[in-house]
Amino acid sequence: MTSPAYDLWYWPSIQGRGEFVRLFMAAAGIPYRDRARTDDAQALVEDMEAREKSGQFAPYAPPYLVEREMGFAIAQVAHILTWLTDKHDLDSGDPATDLHLIQLQLTITDIVAEVHDTHHPVASGLYFDDQKDAAKRAAKAFREERIPKYFDHFEAALSVKPGPFMVGATWSHVDTSLFQLVEGLRYAFPLRMAAITDDYPKLMACRDAVAEIEGVASYLDSEARIPFNEDGIFRHYEELDAA
Amino acid sequence: MTSPAYDLWYWPSIQGRGEFVRLFMAAAGIPYRDRARTDDAQALVEDMEAREKSGQFAPYAPPYLVEREMGFAIAQVAHILTWLTDKHDLDSGDPATDLHLIQLQLTITDIVAEVHDTHHPVASGLYFDDQKDAAKRAAKAFREERIPKYFDHFEAALSVKPGPFMVGATWSHVDTSLFQLVEGLRYAFPLRMAAITDDYPKLMACRDAVAEIEGVASYLDSEARIPFNEDGIFRHYEELDAA
C-alpha cells in the first residue's frame, strides 16, 4: 500500500481551521496523513520554522497541506480547498459557478475570523478572562447582527440552485465548510442558534445533507473527529450566548 | 472608443478594500469604470440588493468587479486579483509560484482585517468612541506583536527571489497589495512604522518599486486616489499609535 499523497499540519488539540480541510478530505475520500494526530505541537512549530527559514515560500500559519512527492506546501483554508477541488476534478463543471464557490468560501473565512473575535476581541495573545467585558459586547453584536447578515446571504445563495447543496445534488467545498460553520455555531451559541434555526431551512438542510455524505458520516463517527473545546475557534462560554 | 470592460463597485468615501483593486488595475493598465467615483453610496446599496435578490450568486460585500459584457460579478479582494491575474496573463509563469502568491495575498487579507479591528475591536456597528478602551489595548497588541509577525513573514518571502518584487523583476498582485498595506500602516501608525522601517528593507524596497510602476505613479498623482481618512480601514487616531 502506498502512503497517502498529502500531509496535513495543524494544532493537535483543537478542530480549529484544520477541520474545514478534514471535512473536505473526508467527503472527497482523499487519503492523507493527519500530522495533528501523529505529531505534537512542537513538531508543528519546528516544521513551520524550518519552512520559513528554507529560502522558499512558506505558510504564515497552519493549517497547511504538503504534497509529499513534490514537497509543495499550501496554506489558507479557502486556498487549500480550491486547489484540491481543481486537482481532484471536484469542480462544478461551470467556471463561473466555481468562481462563485470560491467567493462563498472566502466569505465563510470572514465569518470564522469573526467567530474567533467574539471571545478574543482585543488580542489573540490575551486570556479570555482579560477581555471578557469586550467579549460580551462583541458576542452580542455578532449574535444579533452578524449571524443573521451572513446567514441571510448563505440562505439566498442556497436558493440559486435546487439543493440540498450549493450547486444542487453534488456537494462542494462550500457545503462541507457550511456544515462546520453551523456545527461550530451550535456549539458556541446554542441558545442563539436554536432561536434562529427555523429561519434558515436551506442552510440547515445543507448541513444535514453534508452529515450524510458517506465519508463525512464515517469521519464524524470516528475518534479522528475530536470534540469542540475552549481552546478552538468555536468556544462555548455561557456569558457570550443568548437567544 | 469602447467603454471599459469592467465596473468596480465600492463605497465612495474611502480607499478601503477597493483600493487594493484600484492599485492592481493601475499597475496592469486595465481600464475600468470606477462606480465609487460616478455613483453614490445609495446606488451601491441598491446594486447589491438587486444582486442578492436576482436569484443568482451575489457578492456578500463590496468591493466587487462586474465584467460588463457577461454581467458576471466577483467579490473578495484576493479573489478579484487572482481572477484578473489569470484572465490578463499576469501570472508568474510558474504554477507553484502563482499558488504561493495567492497564499500571500490571503495573508494580506488577514492583516487588513486585523488593522480594521484595532479601531473597531468590539463591533463594526459601534462608534470608535464607544470602544476606545478596547481599541487602545487591541492597537498595542497589533503594533507590538502582529505587525512584526506579519512583516517578518513578508520580509522572508521577499528574500526568496532577487527582488524588488515578490517574484523578482516583475510585479504581481501581492506587490501592489503590500504597497497599500505599508502606506496604510504608515498613515495609521506613523510612530510605530518609523520605528521599525529599517528592520524591513526588502518590504520597503518593494513598496518603493510599486510606487514607480508607471500606471501606479500616475494613479497616485491623480485625484482618483482619495486620501486616507477616519472612515476607512486604515485610520489615524493618536491614542492608538506609539513607537
From TrEMBL, chains A, B:
GO terms for molecular function: glutathione transferase activity. It comes from the Bacteria. The keyword Transferase applies. CDD domains: GST_C_Sigma_like. Residues 101-228 form the GST C-terminal domain. SUPFAM superfamilies: GST C-terminal domain-like, Thioredoxin-like. Keywords: Transferase. Its EC number is 2.5.1.18. InterPro entries: Glutathione-S-Trfase_C-like, Glutathione-S-Trfase_C_sf, Glutathione_S-Trfase_N, GST_C, GST_superfamily, Thioredoxin-like_sf. This is Glutathione S-transferase. It comes from Qipengyuania profundimaris.
